[in-house]
C-alpha cells in the first residue's frame, strides 16, 4: 500500500479545485487495495483581519491541516502552490522552514513529488513558481516527477482557449481579481496529472508486483474455497450413502426377526 498526500495552500480555492481533480485522477481505474490518497492544507500565516481585508473565504473544514508527524507517514506527494511574486507564498515557505528536523534526519529523502500551481495571469509564474520550489525538494532529497507532455500533449497544445498548466505540472489562471476559476481544460490536465502520477508511483514502488501477489493470493483463496466445497459435497454424499446402508441393514434385520 502506497500513501500519497496532496498538500496545498489556497487562498481563494483555485488550488483546492485542482487538488480534488488530481485526487480523482489518482483514484481512477486504480486498485484501492494498493494506494491511499488524502488532501491536506498548509497552515495559514495571515491574521483573520488581513484575510478579511483581502476577501479570502473561510478555509474548507473538510481538509485537515498537514503536520510534520503526518507528513513523514506518506510515501509520495503532490504539492499545490498558489503563486506570490512568481514564487512560493509565505505559507509554504513557513511550512518548509519548520521541516529542519526532517531535513537533518533525511526523513523525506527519496520520496517522489509532483507539483501544480495557480497564478493570476499567464506569464505570472506558472513555470517559474515550480522551478523555485525545486530548491526545497532538492535539499530534502525529494524526487521531482514532472508532468511532461506525454499524458497531456493534446491539452497543453490546445490554443483554442486560454489555460494554465505546463509540462512542469498542471495549473490554473485565477485572473487579476481572482474571479476566474479552473476551466474544463485545466481540470482535465489536473485529472491527467493524477492519473499519470499514480502510474509512475506504481512503477516506482513496484505496485504491479504487489498487485500480482494479491491476484495470486485471491486465486489461491478461491481454489481453496472450491476444494473445500467439493470436500463438503463428498462428505455429504458419503453420509447419505451410510444413512441408506443403515436403512437397508435395519430393513433386512427387521425382515429376519419377523420370519
Ligand atoms: C501578494 C500577492 C502576490 C501575487 N503575485 C502573483 C504573481 O507574481 N503572479 C501571478 O500571476 N499572480 C500573483 N498573485 C495572484 C495569485 O497567484 C492568485 O490569487 C492565486 O493563484 C489564486 O489561487 P488560490 O485561490 O488557490 O490561492 C498574487 C497574489 C497576491 C495576494
Topology:
Layout (H helix, E strand, L loop, with lengths): L1 E7 L5 H14 L7 E7 L6 H6 L14 H4 L4 E7 L7 H8 L2 H6 L6 E8 L6 H15 L2 E2 L8 H4 L14 E3 L10 H21 L2 H52 L1
Parallel strand pairs: 1-2, 1-3, 3-4, 4-5, 4-6
Helix pairs in contact: 1-8
The structure holds flavin mononucleotide.
Sum up the structure in keywords.
259 residues; NAD(P)H dehydrogenase (quinone) activity; single chain; 13% strand; six-stranded parallel beta sheet; 6 strands; Rossmann fold; alpha/beta; Flavodoxin/NO_synth; Flavoprotein_WrbA-like; binds flavin mononucleotide; Flavoprotein-like_sf; FMN binding
Give me a quick take on this structure.
It is built from nine helices and six strands, in the order E-H-E-H-H-E-H-H-E-H-E-H-E-H-H. The chain has one domain (2-205): Flavodoxin domain (Rossmann fold), CATH 3.40.50.360.
Q: Could you please describe the fold and organization of this structure?
A:
- This is Flavodoxin-like domain-containing protein.
- It comes from Wickerhamomyces mucosus.
- Belongs to the WrbA family.
- This protein has 259 residues and is of the alpha/beta class.
- Helices cover 50% and strands 13% of the residues.
- The protein is built from 9 helices and 6 strands; from the N terminus they run βαβααβααβαβαβαα.
- α1 crosses α8.
- The mean pLDDT is 91.
- The structure holds flavin mononucleotide.
Amino acid at each position: 500500500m502506497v500513501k500519497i498526500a496532496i498538500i496545498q495552500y489556497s487562498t481563494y480555492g483555485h488550488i483546492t479545485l485542482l487538488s480534488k481533480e488530481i485526487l480523482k485522477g489518482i483514484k481512477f481505474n486504480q486498485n484501492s487495495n494498493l494506494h491511499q490518497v488524502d488532501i491536506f492544507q498548509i497552515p495559514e500565516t495571515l491574521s483573520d483581519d488581513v484575510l478579511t481585508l483581502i476577501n479570502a473565504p473561510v478555509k474548507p473544514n473538510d481538509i485537515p491541516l498537514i503536520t510534520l508527524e503526518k507528513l513523514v507517514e506518506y510515501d509520495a506527494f503532490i504539492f499545490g502552490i498558489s503563486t506570490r511574486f512568481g514564487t512560493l507564498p509565505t505559507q509554504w515557505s513557513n511550512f518548509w522552514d519548520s521541516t529542519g528536523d526532517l531535513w537533518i534526519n533525511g526523513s523525506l529523502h527519496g520520496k517522489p513529488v509532483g507539483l501544480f500551481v495557480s497564478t493570476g495571469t499567464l506569464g505570472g509564474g506558472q513555470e517559474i513558481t515550480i522551478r523555485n520550489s525545486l530548491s526545497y525538494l532538492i535539499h530534502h532529497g525529494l524526487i521531482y516527477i514532472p508532468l511532461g507532455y506525454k499524458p497531456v500533449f493534446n491539452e497543453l497544445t490546445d490554443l483554442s482557449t486560454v489555460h494554465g498548466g505546463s509540462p512542469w505540472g498542471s495549473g490554473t489562471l485565477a485572473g487579476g481579481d481572482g474571479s476566474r476559476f479552473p476551466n474544463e481544460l485545466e481540470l482535465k490536465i489536473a485529472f491527467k496529472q493524477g492519473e499519470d502520477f499514480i502510474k509512475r508511483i506504481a512503477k516506482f514502488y513496484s505496485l504491479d508486483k504487489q498487485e500480482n501477489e494479491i491476484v495470486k493470493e485471491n486465486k489461491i483463496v478461491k481454489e481453496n474455497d472450491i476444494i473445500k466445497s467439493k470436500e463438503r459435497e463428498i462428505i455429504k454424499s458419503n453420509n447419505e450413502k451410510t444413512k441408506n446402508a443403515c436403512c437397508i441393514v435395519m430393513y433386512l434385520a427387521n425382515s429376519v426377526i419377523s420370519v
